[in-house]
């Protein structure tokens, strides 16, 4: 009813925030499904392996595990982006959650843009340089089997997929 008059507000009410001013940095894509719900068990499943943004955590590993979990959920008329963008905030905590909250309203409209921003924030140049150096100066340790050395080398490469080094040509 457009003709309804607004109820007068008290001075106190003008000074109180409302939910309309709380905006997410993630734009959640529209979903064509008639019945769409992210089950609390799945949200908990995502939250169990949350990323805090600590120096010893690897953001590439976090994204890999997050995508692995998200890819177990397929819903008719729901895009992968819609699922990932809705679930990603549940995979963060502490500094990482603060970063996402501080990014500004409606900044991320696709999964790719959010994942790229996440990696730019949490995969520092220092970390990249260290891992590139570890890869380029890799040596098999004394008493380490070739198999174990190879696994360790492949793990280093996975931790820094953007290392840009030509290996074995």
Q: What's the overall average pLDDT, rounded?
A: 85
N- to C-terminal distance: 72 Å
Alpha carbon gyration radius:
22 Å
Count of distinct structural domains = 2
Describe it for me?
With 169 residues, the protein is mainly α. It folds into two domains: 100 residues, no CATH class; 34 residues. 47% of the residues lie in helices and 0% in strands. The mean pLDDT is 85.
What's the SSE blueprint?
Blueprint: H1 11-14, H2 40-47, H3 59-70, H4 80-87, H5 94-102, H6 111-122, H7 125-136, H8 146-159
Question: What features would you highlight for this structure?
Answer:
169 residues, mainly alpha, 2 domains, 8 helices, 0% strand, elongated
Tell me briefly what this model is:
This protein has 169 residues and is mainly α. It has helices spanning 11-14, 40-47, 59-70, 80-87, 94-102, 111-122, 125-136, 146-159.
């Amino acid at each position: 009813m457009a003709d309804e008059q607004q109820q007068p507000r008290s001075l106190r009410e003008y000074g109180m925030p409302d939910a309309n001013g709380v905006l997410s940095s993630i734009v959640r894509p529209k979903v064509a499904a008639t019945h769409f719900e992210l089950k609390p068990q799945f949200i908990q499943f995502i939250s169990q392996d949350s990323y805090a943004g600590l120096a010893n955590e690897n953001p590439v590993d976090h994204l890999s595990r997050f995508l692995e979990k998200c890819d177990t959920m397929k819903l008719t008329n729901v895009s992968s982006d819609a699922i990932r963008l809705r679930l990603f905030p549940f995979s963060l905590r502490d500094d990482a959650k603060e970063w996402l909250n501080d990014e500004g309203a409606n900044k991320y409209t696709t999964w790719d843009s959010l994942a790229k921003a996440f990696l730019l924030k949490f995969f520092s140049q220092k970390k990249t340089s260290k891992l590139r150096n570890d890869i380029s100066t890799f040596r098999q340790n004394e008493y380490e089997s070739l198999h174990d050395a190879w696994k360790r080398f492949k793990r280093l490469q996975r931790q820094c997929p953007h290392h840009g080094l030509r290996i074995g040509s």
